[in-house]
Amino acid sequence: MSASDDDVLLQSLQERSPAPPPDYTARYGPGPEQIVDLRLPQDGAPASTLVVLVHGGFWRAAYDRAHTAPLADALARAGFAVAVPEYRRVGSPGGGWPGTFDDISILTESLHMITAARGIRAKRTVLVGHSAGGHLALWAAARHRLPPGSTWRTEWRPDAVVSLAGCASLALSDVWNLGRGATASLLGGNVDAVPERYALADPGALLPLGVPVTLLHGSEDEEVPAAMSREYAALAERAGDPVRLVELPGMEHFGLIDPGSSAWPYLLDALGDAG
């Protein structure tokens, strides 16, 4: 599937499920892309779970958080508090290695302060990521596994991670040439050229995470094959992680972020109770 085909699918999703603007937009850094949209439960009730929804687009600047607005709005209507971050991407100033990882790291460390300032005091935080965002969500949960000298290392962990057709293994993403060289563009080289970067950036190399992970993947995904989640699940199980893989028959790549698709109840199940 070409980039133009992706654009058509994403535009169709936004037209079918138009979303109102977020309740708030906050900054987590000085850069124009270091912002996060916040949505509160529509009924005004306090949310016990904060969903951090990380968008995909093969880490490229051509794709921003706008295409996740329908899903974010649906999650807020279901009773969740939702944070949708933007981050520097390949093709934007400072994007790629290491800026993209700096942003995700700073964001997660700032979450409590940002959400508390808007009256969000959730008991649980679940990272949800689609495609390249699935990679970033898993990586954010794995930062406690980084070497002690890494500026990205933290003891913070989410309560769970949900990967939606995620690029869960950067090594496989590179070998399979997903997104026409997207992983090499992100890290400044392929796995043979810069193995030390892959060792720090690949969730598959940082197991065990120590948090529950749910992998939702469509059987008809041509962008990120379902074999990606199968491989990650096998690695995680061997490492002793609690991991669950759900393959959705007939589902393609973007159906996983469509609140009107058959993937929606599986996502709600993975997130647990909103109230």
**SS field, number of helical segments:** 9
The spatial strand order of the largest sheet comes to 1-2-4-3-5-6-7-8
Q: How many separate domains make up the residues?
A: 1
> Largest sheet, if any?
8 strands, mixed
Q: CATH class, anyone?
A: Alpha Beta
Spans where pLDDT lies below 50 across 5 or more residues? none
Beta-strand content bin = 15-25%
Structural class: alpha/beta
List the helices and strands and how they pair.
Blueprint: H1 3-16, E1 24-27, E2 35-39, E3 49-54, H2 69-77, E4 81-85, H3 99-117, E5 124-130, H4 132-141, E6 160-164, H5 170-175, H6 182-187, H7 195-201, E7 213-218, H8 227-239, E8 243-248, H9 264-271
Parallel strand pairs: 3-4, 3-5, 5-6, 6-7, 7-8
Antiparallel strand pairs: 1-2, 2-4
Name some characteristics of this structure.
Rossmann fold, alpha/beta, 16% strand, 275 residues
Question: Could you characterize what this model shows?
Answer:
With 275 residues, this protein is an alpha/beta fold. The protein has one domain (3-271): 3-Layer(aba) Sandwich (Rossmann fold). It is built from nine helices and eight strands. It starts with a helix and ends with a helix.
